[in-house]
Amino acid sequence: MSSRAAIPESMNALLLSRFGGPEQLVPSVRPVPKPGPGEVLIRVAYCGICRHDLLTRSGAFAKTPLPVIPGHQIGGTIVSLGSGVTGVQTGQRVSSLIRIGCGNCAQCRGGNEAYCETFRARFLGEDLDGGYAEFVKIPDHAVIPLPDGLPLETAAVASCTFGTAYHAIQTRGQAQPGETVVVTGASGGVGLHALELLRHFGCRCIAVTSSGEKSELLHQAGADEVITSEDLIFADQVKALTGGSGCDLVIEVVGERTLDQSIRALRKGGRVVLTGNITGKKAQITPAHFILKEISLIGTRTCTKTELQEVYELLVSGAIRVHVDRIFPLEKGPEAHALMEAGASQGRYVLEA
Predict the structure, then answer these.
(1) What is the pLDDT of residue 346?
(2) CB–CB of 240/221 below 8 Å?
(3) Residue 161 pLDDT more than 70?
(4) 179 in a domain, yes or no?
(5) Can you name the residues that pair with 16 across neighbouring β-strands?
(6) CATH of the domain at 239
(7) What range does the domain containing 205 cover?
(8) Of 47, 87, 136, nearest to 332 (Cα)?
(9) 3-class SS at 313?
(10) What DSSP line would sit under 47-81, residue for residue?
(11) pLDDT tens-digit profile of 303-329?
């Protein structure tokens, strides 16, 4: 049953019609999408801004179909249901998975839609119109109901920041209490929230940043030590902090620019979990490190529904907290992108729709 009471015909959105700088995010008036069978319409309250959004906008992912409304971190309320929708209802506060599969294969039914067996999981805000708008429609199987007590602005960043970090640390990295873990790009959205989780899990955290101005913030988030390096050369400092042996695990957020240093910072038998690549460029690595030290390089994509629900429980309990730096009105999205690109953010930027 579809209910569209009090839903306007048009909405405000930021439309990306060509790749380029922040000015390519153009405030536009668009038709409010109509949910089809198995889809829900969400009134967006907040949408987080991610480094991935900057890469999408700049053209790092050339296959992105244009025009598109970016944004993959949403918190909002269901206002309309397409036919055949089950498990959710209008008025329900929700967030969404970032990568959306078919909803029917074994992986999707298990809550891991990023591994969809039917087709390549679609990225919200890239393959599908996303949350830089007042409304967004998504398949019902990608909706995640929010627990009471979880603010929508928190939900709007938790899926990408905490969800990504949780999957990298727990599921892929298998972090154990007492282990020493290095986080690169620690002052960014995923990095800060990785520190929060690592502290909660009882790990010793070494944060790597290129800006000394953010040291206090990193300690507040959970860093035991902070390495400031403008040129992002840090392996020797990690060795010095670990008695020469190296760290157990690296949560590699930056990618190409720091991957070699992360590999060099590991102890024998250590592991690197690669969560991102902010430049989009190819990285060069030395195979001998992997052979002689028996280290592991582990990829990670995004969290499952179950993992995200576990994150929500931790947030509601107060065990961890989100780091939202600034909230911008929707039309200020280009300004927010420019500031993030200049390295001004200390945590997540969020758009309020």
Answers:
(1) 82
(2) no
(3) yes
(4) yes
(5) 25, 68
(6) 3.90.180.10
(7) 162-299
(8) 47
(9) helix
(10) EEE-HHHHHHHHTSSTT--SSB----EEEEEEEEE
(11) 999 999 999 999 999 999 999 999 999
